[in-house]
Amino acid sequence: MVNTTELRVYMTRRDNMTISELAKAIGKSPATVSRWFENRDMPVSYAETIAKILEIPQKEMISIFFANFVA
């Protein structure tokens, strides 16, 4: 499960990046990325790329991209 709340926090810190902007940066459609956020699930292969774009520290990646529980 992906902690999309934390991802949105990092998107806000990156000049209020939108899902459309993030989708463009990773080469996916906005609809696909939006679905990932809604389902709180995404391919693991995009975790590192998204983390670099959003400047997520490596020590926080596991708790964001592999969350056991999201409130």
Outline the structure in words.
With 71 residues, the chain is mainly α. Helices cover 62% and strands 0% of the residues. The chain has five helices and no strands. The protein has helices at residues 4-13, 19-26, 30-39, 47-54, 58-65. The protein starts with a helix and ends in a 6-residue tail after the last helix.
- Average pLDDT, rounded to a whole number, is 94
Largest sheet report: none
**What is the N-to-C succession of helices and strands?**
HHHHH
Count of separate DSSP helical elements: 5
Q: Into which percentage range does the β-strand content fall?
A: under 5%
List low-confidence stretches: none
Structural classification: mainly alpha
What is Rg? 11 Å
Oligomerization status of the protein chains:
single chain
What is the number of E strands? 0
Query: What sort of overall outline do the alpha carbons produce when their principal axes are compared?
Result: globular
Helicity range = 55-70%
State the distance separating the first and last CA atoms. Answer: 11 Å
